[in-house]
Amino acid sequence: MISVEEALTHLFALVGPLEFETIPLAQASGRILAQTVTARRNQPPFAASAMDGYAISGASYPEQTTYRVIGEAAAGHRFHGTAGPNEAVRIFTGAPMPAGTDHVLLQENVARQDNTIVVTDPTNKKSHVRPLGGDFQNGDQITAPRHLRPSDIALLAAMNIADVPVQRRPVVAIIATGDELVQPGETPGPDQIIASNSYGIAALLEANDAQTRLLPIARDTAPALKLAFDLAKDADLIVTIGGASVGDHDLVGDVATNSGMERAFYKIAMRPGKPLMAGRMGNATMIGLPGNPVSAMVCAHIFLLPVIRKMLGRSEAAAPRKTAQLAAPVGPNGPREHYMRAKVDENGVTVFERQDSALLSVLADANCLAVRPIADPARQTGDTIEIIAL
Ligand SMILES: Nc1nc2c(c(=O)[nH]1)N[C@H]1C(S)=C(S)[C@@H](COP(=O)(O)OP(=O)(O)OC[C@H]3O[C@@H](n4cnc5c(N)ncnc54)[C@H](O)[C@@H]3O)O[C@H]1N2
Ligand code: MOO
């Protein structure tokens, strides 16, 4: 058995960043910017009014209190003349500042009669002008890699970048295996249960920028598994669930090898998740997850997500850990690194009593995994422990 750390090193060696693709801006939210992009314009492209009011020359103000209104500038429609020292141009928010002006009197601060305005409140001395390029300038960059949030989409749009280079999302084929499984919504036979892992894992991967394909459930026969691998061969990553252990019906490893998988490792000193396997299969990476529902989900957090992140062009990094204080004692750990279902809140970390890797209800109650090193002794309330957020 190898350590979790060694397994991650093997996995990182199996995958590299995928190529980028160019997609329309409207589809780019949530994607990872793959190439640094450069603004080819200034924003605003002209000095612009920030308020509705009257544009004047600030040099004369506030001594000058009366101005003659000589025209109008609106957003999208500049005033083409030049304002003299005691002249004003009616202006609206977003309009280019007319030649000869550099200051906007708020309309609330003047009284207008016909074509004359009189300043009624000279205390407001702000210019209310947005300088040319005050937001961004020609040549300013958004640096890759970057997870594009809605505010980035707005900035890209303002920069007039209509097509965005983003990292291609890895395609992950998910194969649930087992004679006992039926799909959610179907009627299980007396010895059957509902396939849950594939749905949980697909949800987790989709939330982390992968595209998932849920393949039909593969029965516990070599031809059924072989067919599943054939169907999955165009994926970037093939994830099997179950059939990974040592039972007579655990055929995934053998069939994968017969289908051309070059194994990188099998079995890790981890709990849950011991019978994990991985290797290369044609152009794809294959990861065989254990069937126990919590084992599969925990392995997805600890191994699949870092692999997906590397495929998306991010640096090689294990699931991020934080430290927290125990809110209740925990017993000693055994010979495998233990990822215990736990809850963290303002009182600290409480490790759940029931840690069987079949218990999805316990996993759903957990908001973190408390990580116990190999042979970690019993720990007391207040001791520091590492956790991984779920
Ligand atoms: N003699 C030994 N037995 C087992 C060992 C061992 O070392 N020696 N390891 C145990 C550990 S640890 C695990 S984890 C499991 C993993 O077994 P498999 O990967 O072969 O998984 P299955 O046997 O196919 O299934 C285990 C369990 O999970 C249920 N399952 C499977 N797939 C799904 C799915 N898609 N959705 C929901 N539930 C699923 C399946 O019905 C079984 O109950 O092996 C131990 N045994
Ligand atoms: O290692 Mo198994 O994955 O404990 O349940």
Would you write up a description of this structure?
InterPro entries: MoaB/Mog-like_dom_sf, MoaB/Mog_dom, MoeA-like, MoeA_C_domain_IV, MoeA_C_domain_IV_sf, MoeA_linker/N, MoeA_linker/N_sf. Its EC number is 2.10.1.1. It catalyses: adenylyl-molybdopterin + molybdate = Mo-molybdopterin + AMP + H(+). It comes from Yoonia phaeophyticola. Its cofactor is Mg(2+). By secondary structure, the protein is α+β, with helices and mostly antiparallel strands. The protein folds into four domains: 4-17 and 169-311, Molybdenum Cofactor Biosythetic Enzyme, Chain A (3-Layer(aba) Sandwich); 20-42 and 137-167, Alpha-Beta Complex (Molybdopterin biosynthesis moea protein, domain 2), CATH 3.90.105.10; 48-130, Molybdopterin biosynthesis moeA protein, domain 3; 322-389, MoeA, C-terminal, domain IV (Beta-clip, Beta Barrel), CATH 2.40.340.10. It contains seven helices and 28 strands. The protein has helices at residues 4-14, 150-158, 197-206, 222-232, 252-258, 293-311, 360-365, and strands at 20-24, 32-33, 37-38, 48-49, 53-56, 66-73, 87-91, 103-106, 110-113, 116-119, 129-130, 141-142, 146-147, 163-167, 171-176, 181-182, 193-194, 211-214, 237-241, 261-266, 270-271, 277-281, 284-289, 322-325, 337-345, 348-351, 368-372, 384-389. The protein has a six-stranded mixed beta sheet with strand order 8-5-7-6-10-9, with no helix packed on it. It has a six-stranded mixed beta sheet with strand order 18-15-19-23-22-20, with helices on both faces. Strands 21, 24, 25, 26, 27 and 28 form a six-stranded mixed beta sheet that branches. A hairpin with a 2-residue loop joins strand 25 and strand 26. Helix 1 packs across helix 6 and helix 3 runs parallel beside helix 6. The mean pLDDT is 96. Bound molecules: ligand LQZAQKY5 and molybdate ion. The site of molybdate ion has 8 residues, from loops. Molybdate ion binds next to loops.
